[in-house]
Amino acid sequence: MDNDTWLLALGGFPGTGKSTVAGLLANDLRIPLLASDLMGNTIKAVLAGHAPAAVPSSVAFRAGYATLFALAEEFLSHGSSVIVDINLGWRFQWEALDAIQGRHSAVRLLPFILECSRQTSVTRLEQRHLGDPQRYPPAEEFMNQPQLEAVDQLLRDVDRPDVHRIDADRPVVDVMERIRAAMAETNRGAR
Question: By the 8 A CB rule, do 32 and 80 touch?
Answer without folding.
Answer: yes
